[in-house]
Amino acid sequence: MPLPLAFLSASPEGAHLPLQMLLVFGSAKLLAEVAQRLRMPGIVGGLLAGILIGPSVLNWIRYDDLLRALAELGVMFLLFQVGLEVKATELLRVGRVAMLTAILGVILPFLLGWAILVAARHPPIESIFMGAAMVATSVGITAQVLAAKGILQHQTARVILAAAVIDDVLGLLVLAVVSSMGEKGGIDFVGILTSAAVSILFVVAVVEFGARTVNVVLPRVTRRLKVEEAEFAVAVIFLFIMALLATYSGVAAIIGAFLAGMALAETASKRLHTLVHGAGELMVPFFLASIGLQMDLSVFGDASTLGLGIAILIAAILSKGVGCGLGAWKLGFKDAARIGAGMIPRGEVGMVVAQVGLSKGEISQSVYGVAVFMSVATTILAPPLLNFVYRDIAPAEPPPDDDLPLELG
Amino acid sequence: MPLPLAFLSASPEGAHLPLQMLLVFGSAKLLAEVAQRLRMPGIVGGLLAGILIGPSVLNWIRYDDLLRALAELGVMFLLFQVGLEVKATELLRVGRVAMLTAILGVILPFLLGWAILVAARHPPIESIFMGAAMVATSVGITAQVLAAKGILQHQTARVILAAAVIDDVLGLLVLAVVSSMGEKGGIDFVGILTSAAVSILFVVAVVEFGARTVNVVLPRVTRRLKVEEAEFAVAVIFLFIMALLATYSGVAAIIGAFLAGMALAETASKRLHTLVHGAGELMVPFFLASIGLQMDLSVFGDASTLGLGIAILIAAILSKGVGCGLGAWKLGFKDAARIGAGMIPRGEVGMVVAQVGLSKGEISQSVYGVAVFMSVATTILAPPLLNFVYRDIAPAEPPPDDDLPLELG
Asked: Is residue A79 in a domain?
C-alpha cells in the first residue's frame, strides 16, 4: 500500500526526520490526552497512536530502522528509570514468590497456546512456536503504569519486576529450545544449558554483588570528574554497558537497563532522575507507538484467523493472569490478582518469538499475525486492567511534585 | 577498510544498538573529560571522539542513518535550548549589526575560497563550490560554548545568533545559485527569488509576530491539557513543527528549532528547561561526534591536497573572522573580535554544500575532502578560540546551580 504522506517526506532536504518525529510523537501525545480525558492511562493513547498511523489504519508511517532504534532507546530509558526506583535488596526479598510466579506464568501460557493450535489442526512445530510466543512478559508497560501511579514501592510491584526478570531468562530458554527444534541435529542441549547458566549468572551477579559495588564505586568516580553533568554521563554509559552485557549473556537489553538503574538506585541524585526523565519523555512515545506500528489488522481477512486470534488473546490473558496469580497466591487474592494482571502484556517480546518462527519458515503469515495481535492486544488491555486492580492503592509517596521523577507518563 | 569491532556488533540479537550508543556516547564523554582537564571546552572532546572512532583513526564506527538521525535530533535540541534563552525582541534590537555581520561574513569567505581554488588551477565550477562551502556558519558549537559559559545574555551572543539566522538564509541563496549553475537552462532566477522570499518571510514572520502569539497561545493550551508533562509535550511538538516548516521554507531544520525555542523563551518553566536539557544531554554527544565521524584524513595522501587543505582552513578562519568582525565594527574591537570568532565554525552546513557538489559531479573527491576538513577543523578550533576571546566576560547570571538549564556542556 502506498504511504499517502510520502510526498511530504520526499520533498525538501532534511524534512524527513522532523516529519517522522512529529507524526509519531505528536499522535502519541494527542491520543494520550484523549485517553486521559476518558480516564484511561495515557500510555493507552501512545499504543493506539501506533495502530492509527501504522499499516492497520492510516498507513502514514513505516516502522523503519530509525523508529526501531528510538523505540529501543525509549524502552531502555523507561526500564532504567524504573530500576532507579528499586533497590536490589527489595527485589531479593520477594525472590521466592517471584520465582514461583514466573515459572507458573511460563508453563500455563505455553501449554494453552500450544493446545489451542493443536486443536485447530496446525502443524506441531507451529503450535509449539505459538506457545513460546505466549511465554514472555514485557514489563515495560506495567512498569510505566505503576510508576505513573506512584506505586512502584508497593510489594506487588516488586514481585512483578523480579518475576519479569526471571521470566525473561525462562523465555530465553524456551525460545532457544523451540528455535533449535526445527534444525538438523536436533536440540543442542549443551549449548542451551550453557546459555542458561550464563544468563542466570549475569542476573544473579548483578543483583547479589553488582549493585553494592556500583553504589560504592560510581559515586566516587563521578565526584572526581570535571565533565559537565558527570553523574548523567556516568549513568548513561553504565546503562549502555549493562544493556550490552545483558544481550551477550542472552537476556534482553532492557533487563540490563533495569538492572543498571537498580544498581544506581541508592545513590542517584534528584537531578539525575530528572535528566533521565527528560530523555525518557522524548523517547518513550516512540516505544509505545512502535508496538502498534508493528500490528497489521488486515491479517484478519478470513474468519478462521479472526477466531484463532480471539481464542489466543483470551488464552494469553487467562493463562498468564491465572498462572502468575497462582504463583503469588500466598500474598492473598487481591495482590495475586494485581500480580497476575501486571504480567499479562507480551509487548515486543512475543513479537520477537513470532519473528524468529516466521524467519525460519516454521509458522505461517497468518499465525504470525495472530501472535503479533496477541502481543499488542495484551499490551493495550493491561493499563486499564491495572488501573482497575490497583484502584484502592494510594501512592506510597506524596504525589509527584514539580521535580520528582515518578511521573513517567 | 573493515571495521575491527564488527564482530562485536554482529553477535547477539539486540547488541548492535547499545554497542553503537556506548562507543559514541562513551568516547565523547571520555574525551570531554580529558579536554576539561586540559582546560579546553568539553565539546572539543566530543568532536575529537568522532575523529578517533571514525574512519580517520580507529574506524570502529560507520556514520550510518541512525547516527545521522540522532545527530540531527541532538543539534535540534541544542538550538532549541539556546532559543529558550533568547527573546525575540532582543534579537530584533541587534538586527542591523547582525545583518551587516552576516552579509560581510558571506562575501569575504566566498571570494577568498573561490580565489584560492582558481589560483590553484581548479575548474571554475569547482572553485565556486568551494567558495559556497565556506559561506554558511554552523551556530551550534558557538551556542553551546556560550551557553556553557553562561553568557548567552551577552550582547555579542545576540548578534552571533541573529547573524547566524540571516547567514543561513544567505547560505541557502548561494547554494541555490551555485547548484543551478551546472544545470541545463542556466540559473533559475525566478525559482531562487521565490525560495528566498519564502525563507525570509518565514523567519520574519516568526521573529516579528510568531513569538508574541505563541507566548499567549501555548501556555493556555498547556494549562487545559491533562496529559502528563503537558508543557514538555507541547514544546516538543512545536519544535518539530517549526523544524518541518523551516525545511519547507528552505532554511535548515535547526533554524526552525532555534526559532521555536525563542518563541517559547518568555513562558518556559524551569521544569521544561531541565527536561529539554536531559533529552539534549543524551543526544548532543551524537551531534558532536558525527562531525568528526564524517572526516576522513586519508584524503590528505598527496602534498598538494594537504597544502590546499591548510590554505583553505586558514582562509576560512580569516575571511569569516575578519568579515564578521568588520560587520560588527561599531561595537568596538573586542566585541567585534568575539563575534568574528563565534561565526567561524562551519560544521555540518559546509559539509552539506560539499555533498551537493560531489553528488552533482562538480567537485572532485579531494576537494570534497578539503571542504569537509575545513568544516570540521573550523568547528574544532572555535571552542578554544571562544574561550580566549570571552575570557574576561563573567556569566550574566549566577553560575548554574543544580537545576538551572544553562549548562549545556
From this structure: yes
Distance between CA atoms of B202 and B195, rounded to whole angstroms?
10
Joined grid coordinates for residue B228:
502528563
**Predicted complex ipTM:** 0.84
Does a structural domain hold residue B28? no
Residue that has been written with the C-alpha cell 493450535 in this structure: A117
C-alpha cell at B43: 565539546
By three-state DSSP, how is residue A8 classified? helix
CA distance A379 to A50: 13
Residue A354 has φ and ψ, to the nearest 5°, of -60, -40
Shortest distance, CA B157 to any CA of chain A (angstroms): 21
Partner-chain contact A29 B227, CB within 8 Å: yes
Question: Would you state the cell numbers that stand for residue B322, as one nine-digit string?
Answer: 575578519
Amino acid sitting at position B366: S
Rounded Cα distance, B85 and B334, in Å: 23
A residues 47..106 contacting B (CB < 8 A): 65-66, 69, 72-73, 76
- Whole-angstrom Cα distance, residue A23 to residue A204? 41
Task: Point out the residue among A14, A148, A248 whose CB comes nearest to the CB of B247.
Answer: A14
Report how far Cα B378 is from the mean position of its chain's Cα atoms: 11
Prediction pTM value: 0.85
Enter the DSSP assignment of A206: I
Question: Amino acid identity of B364?
Answer: S
Distance set, CA B143 to CA B75, B152, B198, B283, B299 (Å): 11, 8, 26, 16, 30
Q: What is the mean pLDDT of residues B154-175?
A: 88
pLDDT at B7 over 80: no
B394: number of Cβ within 10 Å: 11
Q: Which three cell numbers stand for residue A115?
A: 493446545
Q: Within a 10 A sphere around the Cβ of B179, how many other Cβ atoms?
A: 18
CATH of the domain at B134: 1.20.1530.20
pLDDT score for A409: 38
Cα A44 from chain centroid (whole Å)? 14
Separation in Å, CA B392 to CA B135, B143, B344, B383: 29, 18, 20, 15
Which residues are within 8 A (CB) of A21 and not within 5 positions of it... i.e. 6 or more apart? B73, B240
Distance from CA of A356 to the nearest CA of B (A): 11
Say yes or no for a CB contact (<8 Å) between A279 and B279: yes
d(CA A214, CA A203): 15
Largest CA distance in chain B: 65
Q: Does B22 touch chain A (CB under 8 A)?
A: yes
Give the distance from CA A228 to its chain's centroid.
Answer: 32
Residues A325-358: b if buried by 16+ CB within 10 A, e if exposed: bebbbebeeebbbbbbbbbbbbbbbbbbbbbbbb
Burial B153-175 (b: 16+ CB within 10 A, else e): ebbbbbbbbbbbbbbbbbbbbbb
Dump pLDDT digits (tens) for A54-94. 888 888 888 888 999 999 999 899 889 888 888 888 888 89
Interval A335-381: pLDDT, tens: 999 999 999 998 777 887 888 888 888 889 899 989 989 988 998 89
Using CA atoms, how far apart are residues B41 and B341, in angstroms rounded to an integer? 15
In a domain, B170, yes or no: yes
Residues of A in contact with B409 (CB under 8 A): 227-229
Task: Give the C-alpha separation, A241 to A247, whole Å.
Answer: 10
CB atoms within 10 A of CB A10: 11
Range of the domain at B170: 74-283+302-389
Residue with cell 547554494: B175
Output DSSP code: residue B208: I
Number of domains in chain A: 1
* Domain membership flag for residue A213: yes
Task: Please give the grid coordinates belonging to residue B51.
Answer: 575523529
Query: In this structure, how many other beta carbons lie within 10 angstroms of the beta carbon of residue A140?
Result: 28
